[in-house]
């Protein structure tokens, strides 16, 4: 703090007597305290009184599929399947192959590099399978479209060297992402980063403030809403899932999502985003750019899946997500409560990317 306030081009080591009263050169103030201004001292004292609390991981943001019921798996249709916006068709087997990204609408994006469309056997799964050929991602993973190349590369390397983890273990999407990153070569990471950097980020998420939500079960690493009209209280959660679960399972890139959030979340999140920090110095756009659309090497956070934003904020705070420039976010989340994270996630997800 002291060095930040000091002259930029001044001497590195300050004259020890520069703060002493010239009239009493033998002042009894200990030399260690002398260079600290009263303000700096007060700030230090105040911040050491304020507790840094890590609440339990919000389970709703890390939905984990229940184990399949015992006995033989139920018969499921094998296709081929079609969707209204495409002339192509895919079988269930093709839709479950992590080494060939189903590409319903090739006309929507430039040609994919091999690593994005097919990955590399046996461990590098096709990025486009989970993050989609358009890079818009799905709530259980992350949107990659438009991410700065340097940031993208640093994140894959953080997964690779084990510095970026999840606060909640045992979720298949993250396990597969990690296995993929561990097997990747630098040139492959760069090729994927350059492809996704050229794509325009889009949002397919609708934020709905409500106290009552359709009953939901966990499936596909997110929420599947019951179609039969049964309701339950939302409480302090965000429930995010596809409007049409069948379309989601077919990996249609135009699948729409609903995220139910508690009443008032969006307005609260907006206020927090604009004023974060003791003197608002950590307001989100100062680093994430106007409209939170990203700036230089800092990623855009507008219009992303609210549960994926929530996981990132909590993972920074818990220390599960390190690597890259995570130290910049450490100071942002230091005093952030889970309820602040929820509101920020709801607000940011409601914006246009
Ligand atoms: C099995 C699904 C899956 C596959 C395949 C996959 N990823 Fe991921 N990816 C994920 C998940 C899950 C996350 C992290 C979500 C979280 O932290 O909540 C992620 C996160 C990322 C991120 C961080 C984005 C950010 O802004 O935080 C990058 C970059 C990334 N993946 C790149 C790749 C690349 C490159 C490939 C292909 C070589 C790939 N992924 C393949 C599931 C996958
Ligand atoms: C001092 C600069 C700074 C401020 C202020 C800041 N951020 Fe960040 N943020 C970063 C950087 C840098 C990263 C990339 C971290 C990394 O490399 O892991 C980041 C990453 C993130 C991510 C993860 C994005 C992804 O792609 O996974 C989220 C979410 C986020 N910030 C939310 C916020 C919110 C919400 C605020 C305001 C309350 C905020 N940030 C304020 C610098 C900042």
Structure overview:
With 353 residues, the protein is mainly alpha-helical. The chain folds into three domains: 1-50, no CATH class; 92-197, Cytochrome c-like domain (Cytochrome Bc1 Complex, Chain D, domain 2); 203-349, Cytochrome Bc1 Complex, Chain D, domain 2, CATH 1.10.760.10. Helices cover 33% and strands 8% of the residues. It has 14 helices and seven strands. It has helices at 2-5, 38-49, 92-95, 114-117, 127-131, 149-160, 172-182, 186-197, 245-249, 265-275, 285-288, 306-318, 326-333, 338-349; strands at residues 205-209, 212-214, 216-219, 222-225, 231-233, 239-242, 257-261. It has a three-stranded mixed sheet. Strand 3 (216-219) and strand 4 form a beta hairpin. The radius of gyration is 24 Å and the shape is globular. The two termini are 34 Å apart. 33% of the residues are buried. The model is unreliable at 1-33 (pLDDT under 50). It binds heme C (2 copies).
């Amino acid at each position: 703090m002291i060095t930040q306030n000091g002259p930029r081009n001044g001497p590195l080591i300050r004259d020890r007597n520069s703060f002493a009263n010239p009239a009493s050169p033998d002042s009894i103030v200990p030399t260690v305290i002398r260079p600290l201004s009263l303000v700096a001292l007060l700030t230090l004292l105040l911040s050491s009184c304020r507790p840094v609390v890590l609440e339990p991981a919000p389970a709703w943001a890390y939905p984990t599929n229940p184990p399949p019921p015992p006995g033989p798996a139920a018969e499921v249709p094998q296709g081929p399947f079609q969707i209204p916006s495409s002339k192509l068709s895919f079988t269930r087997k093709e839709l479950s192959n992590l080494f060939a990204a189903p590409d319903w609408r090739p006309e929507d994006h430039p040609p994919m590099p091999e690593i994005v469309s097919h990955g590399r056997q046996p461990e590098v799964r096709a990025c486009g399978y989970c993050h989609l050929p358009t890079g818009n991602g799905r709530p259980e993973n992350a949107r990659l479209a438009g991410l700065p190349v340097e940031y993208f590369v640093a994140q894959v390397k953080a997964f690779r060297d084990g510095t970026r983890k999840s606060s909640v273990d045992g979720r298949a999407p993250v396990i597969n992402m990690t296995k993929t990153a561990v097997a990747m070569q630098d040139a492959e990471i760069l090729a994927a980063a350059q492809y996704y950097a050229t794509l325009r980020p889009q949002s397919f998420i609708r934020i709905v403030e409500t106290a009552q939500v359709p009953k939901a079960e966990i499936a596909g690493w997110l929420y599947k809403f019951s179609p039969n009209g049964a309701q339950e209280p939302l409480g302090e959660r965000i429930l995010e899932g596809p409007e049409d679960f069948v379309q989601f399972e077919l990996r249609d890139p135009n699948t729409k999502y609903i995220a139910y959030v508690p009443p008032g979340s969006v307005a609260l999140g907006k206020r927090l985003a604009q004023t974060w920090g003791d003197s608002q110095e950590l307001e989100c756009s100062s680093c994430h750019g106007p409209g939170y659309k990203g700036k230089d090497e800092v990623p855009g956070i507008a219009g992303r899946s609210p549960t994926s934003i929530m996981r990132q904020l909590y993972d920074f705070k818990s220390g599960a997500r390190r690597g890259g420039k995570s130290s910049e976010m450490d100071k942002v989340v230091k005093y952030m409560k889970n309820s602040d994270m929820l509101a920020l996630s709801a607000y940011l997800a409601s914006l246009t990317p």
